[in-house]
Write a structure and sequence with these properties.
It is built from six helices and four strands; from the N terminus they run ββααααββαα. The strands form two sheets. It has a two-stranded antiparallel sheet with strand order 1-2. A two-stranded antiparallel sheet has the order 3-4. β1 and β2 form a beta hairpin. The longest helix has 36 residues.
């Protein structure tokens, strides 16, 4: 998010990743309700739906990739604060830049390989055969999409850290 005069100014990408995060929240809610409903049905002596476990597996993948860019923007990813906070401001900035470059490289690699894998699944018509039979490519489609959003966010952070005059990244 861009900051000007102490006020937060959001651009189009910020709205996109917030929208993706809301979808992730809805998926977590649906997952919670389906697992809880399945447990209640089992407790009552009935057979729970076959798709519950399968849906939960897919939901874990989807909400992870949907919320990753937002979590990065908010500074919620794993960080070794005990080491980083003890560094001098200029050194901390260099570490953050290296972190952004490595994160960008990894997320671009995930985007590229995820795209190739998803296209391959689509072209070959591979099906996921578990409780319910479904095409595999829609399940894996979130990997390149989420990795693309994550790549863009790493790029934004890299640019912000390069523009920062000191270790203060609020500029």
């Amino acid at each position: 998010m861009a900051r000007r005069d102490g006020k937060t100014r959001k651009n189009g990408f910020d709205f996109i990743i917030e929208f993706l995060t809301y979808i992730a929240g809805i998926i977590v809610l649906a997952m919670t309700l389906s697992v809880s409903g399945s447990a209640v049905v089992r407790y009552l002596g009935f057979r729970p739906p076959d798709w519950t476990f399968q849906f939960t597996e897919y939901a874990l993948l989807w909400f992870t990739f949907l919320a990753a860019a937002w979590l990065l923007r908010e500074g919620g990813h794993i960080n070794i604060d005990t080491v980083v906070t003890r560094l001098h401001a200029k050194t901390r900035r260099k570490v953050e830049i290296i972190d952004d470059i490595l994160g960008l490289m990894v997320s671009v690699a995930i985007f590229l390989f995820g795209t190739l894998h998803t296209i391959d699944l689509f072209q070959r018509g591979i099906m996921e055969v578990k409780g319910t039979t479904v095409p595999k490519f829609p399940i894996f489609l979130i990997i390149p999409l989420g990795a693309l959003a994550l790549s863009i966010q790493f790029g934004r952070q890299f640019y912000k850290n390069l523009r920062s005059k000191s270790g203060n990244t609020e500029n």
